[in-house]
Batch of 3 targets.
Target 1
Amino acid sequence: MYLVRRHWRGRCNRGRIDPCTRTGGDVDATGGEIILVVYWAGGVHTGLRVARRRRGQQRKNTAPEIVEAVRMLACKCTDDVIAGILTRNDLRTANGNRWTRQRVTSLRNHYGIPVYRPDTCEAEGWMNLTQAAALLGISPKTLRVAAERGEIEATHPLAEGPWLFKRAILEREEAKCLVERVRRRRSYPTGPKYPQSTLFESMT
C-alpha cells in the first residue's frame, strides 16, 4: 500500500463532496489495474480501480503506416520535406496536429529512425524518380508506369509522395529489358513510314 501524490488529495478536497483525510492504493499486476482507496472524513472509504498504463505505453500512438512511411522517406528526404509530404497527404499526428519539422524529428527519435544524410543516401543508392529515369535514359513517366505495373521494384510510401528507387535494382535484368523495349519503340515509331499524297495534291 502506498500514499497517492499530494495533488490527488487536493483534487479530492476540491470536489466539495466531503473532505478526504487520506488516500492510498495498491497495484494489481495480474489485472493491469491500480486499486485506489479514498478515506473520507467520518470513517467511510471508497474503492476505485483504474487501468494501469504499461511501461512505454502512450495514451495516443502515431499510426503504424505513418511511422513506416517516415522510415522510408527518411532515406531520401529531410525532415522539412517529410513534414510537407505528410501534410499534402492530409495526415495528422496522434494528437491531430499538422506535421512540422520538429514533430517529424521527434517521431524519428522516438522510433529510432536515422536522419537523412546525403552521404548515406548516396552510399545506399537511393534515388528519386527523376534521378532513376536519368540513370536509365528513359522518361520519368515511362519509369513510373513500369513501377506501377510492378515491372520495376520501387517504393512509394504515400500516394501524394515521391517514388524511391535503389541503384542496385536499376542495374538488374528487368531494368535492362525495360530500357531495351523503350529503345525499340524509338527505333520503330508508329504511324506511316512515308508521306502519303494529300486529297488536294495537284494532278498536273
Target 2
Amino acid sequence: MFFLDRVLHHQKLLEAEPNRLKKRTCPVQALKTGGVIRKAVNRVGKLKLNNNIMSTNVTDYPSVNFNGGCGEASGSVPNSATSTGMQPFQTATVNGGPPSNCVIANDGGTVYGITILNIAGPIYDYQISVDAQGPSGWDSGSMYLAFTDATGDTYYLSIYSSTREIHTVDYNSSSPAIVTIWWCDNSFTASGEGVNQTKADFRVTSPAKKE
C-alpha cells in the first residue's frame, strides 16, 4: 500500500510539472524507454544512435555536383565525372541530377547514391558508401566503379548482385575528398593511374554487412 501511494504521488507530480523535454534547446536529447537509451544527435546528416546501431539519413547531407559523362560505358573505356571535391558527410549528384540518371551499366545496373563518411575506425578513417544494384540476368556480369581522391589515389568497387544494396569502400587519405567518379560495364584502370604507381590501400564490403 505504501508503494502504491508513492507511485500515485509521483504520477501527480509529473502531471503537474511542465514537459521540460519539449522546451530544451540542447542538441542532444536522451529518452529512456523500456530500459533502452536512445539518442538523437542534431547535426549535419542527423546521425542517430538507436539501440547502439548507427544509421545515417543521407538525404540531409549537402550535395556536390560531378560534371562529365552520362550513361552506360559498354566498352573498355569508362565514363567519368569530376567535381571540386566531395568531402566527408557530403553526397554526390551527377550532371545536376541523381546518380541514377547517369551512372548506369548494362542490364539495369544502377548507382542511386554516393556518400562519403568519416568513420574514424581502427584501420580506416573514411568510407565511400554506394547505394547500387548490379546487372540483372544470366551472364550479365558486374558493374565496375572507381573513385579518385584529391591525392590521386583511386579506389575500386565491382557490384555483382542485382539486388539494390549498400556497398562500402573504406580508405585512408591525407586529402580524402573524392574528385572523380568512374563507371563501366567492364573492368578497367582509371586514367592517369600509372602501371608503376603504388596501388592505394582500401577495403571493400559488398554488400555492406547488416547489423
Target 3
Amino acid sequence: MIETVTNTVVATPQGGGFPFGVAVTPDGKDVYATNLYGDSVIDTASNTVVATVPEGNYDMGIAVTPDGKRVYVTNARDGGLHLVSVIDTASKQVVATVAGVGYGPLAIAITPDGNYAYVTNLGSNTISVIATASKKKVATIPDVNSPSGVAVTPDGKHARHGQQYGRGHHPSRERPLCCWHRSAAAGRAIPRFQCRARNQLPPRSKRRCL
C-alpha cells in the first residue's frame, strides 16, 4: 500500500502468488487482488488478507460494480473456457460465471451505471460486452488490434482501450520486444526504451531485452 501524501510504501499485505489486478470497493473497506489461482480480499483497516476466493485460473483483470455488491474477474485460462467470474462481496464467493467471451480475456471495466462490463480479449482481438443484470455476453466488438487495458469514461458514453502490440502484429505471430539498446562505443545501455518487432532489432550482442 502506498501513502499518497508522501508517496511511500507503508504496508505490504501478503496475498496469493503472482498478483496482477487490484480493485477497491466503493466504501473503501476492501481491496480485491487477482492472483494466478484465486483472489485475495484485503481489509484496508488492518492491511491484512481476510479471505481468499478460490476461483478461476490465471485471474487477471478485476472490477467492482458501482454499488459494491459484485466483483468481476477475468480468467484467462480456466480450462480453456476463458470465463469471467462474478464474486458476491457479502459472501466473498463466486455466484456466477460468464462464458463465451473471447480468447485470453485480460482487462475489464464496468460502466458508471453498473449495467455493462467491457472485457478485452487479447488473444482473439475482440472486446466482449456483458450485461450485468443477466450476467451474459450481449455483444462482441470485432477487429480490435491487441486490446489490453480498458476504461470507461465517467459519462459512460465511451470505452477506451490500450493496444499491447503494434499495428499488424498478432499475439500468435510476431510480437514486439521491448529492449534497452546497448551502445557499442560506451559499452552500456542507452537510457532510451523502445519497442520493436523481432526482425527490426539490432544484433543480439548490442541489445539487452527485458
